[in-house]
Request: fold
Amino acid sequence: MDLFDSELRVIAAAEELVRGLKPNENHTVVAAAMDTAGRIHTGVNVHHFTGGPCAELFAIGAAAAANAGPLVTIVAVGDQGRGLLAPCGRCRQVFLDLHPDALVIVPDDTTGKPSIATVPALLPHSYRHPDSAPTRLLRLHARYFDAVEDGTKTLTVRWNEGHRTGAALAYFENTEHSTFPVEVTSVMVKRLDELEPEDLDLTQPGGLERYIANLRGHYPAMPADANVEVVRFRRTAADI
Reply:
């Protein structure tokens, strides 16, 4: 999946900061995270013999200090030219509990180039802290803004995103459109190759094939037997 310009800005912010670090074995990784307003928050790791927080956790803390709300993109970059770094297990668990809808930029194992991963994909068969109650995001392409805003689009199909029913924010990727509250009313999990037109409210001939083709364009690595989520939602007026 190609990265949006906004995601490339997050990488650039982390790379710029890491280039400015003086050689110091206690500070070797920089993280950057973007919020729904497009602001970028950064942090540097602190290594210590008693244990020290990763750069990603410092970036999350900096975002919280700025009252940023949910984060949409997170990346870590190592010093001395090490490039993009995948998050450790602890950071993955923190993402799941605090920012489960953030996209994490990681190096592709094959090409080494930046790649995007959802938090559930990074942490399969995960444990979710029972007291965590993060603000959820329903990520949508900018072209759907008008249809979601006026209530004509109320269904989307997602893969590896772990949606649940309840309050969320509609977030439109790589755009200046603001978020607004929605309610996820149902989540049906079904195999991609077992979807029926009625599952997606499709009535035109060939509609299912076209829908799946578009879905594959968004999720090029999605296998034919993937379990996908048919997410139904509605716009709400109440703040969450």
In short: The domain at 5-122 is CATH 3.40.140.10 (Cytidine Deaminase; domain 2). The first strand starts at residue 29 and ends at 35.
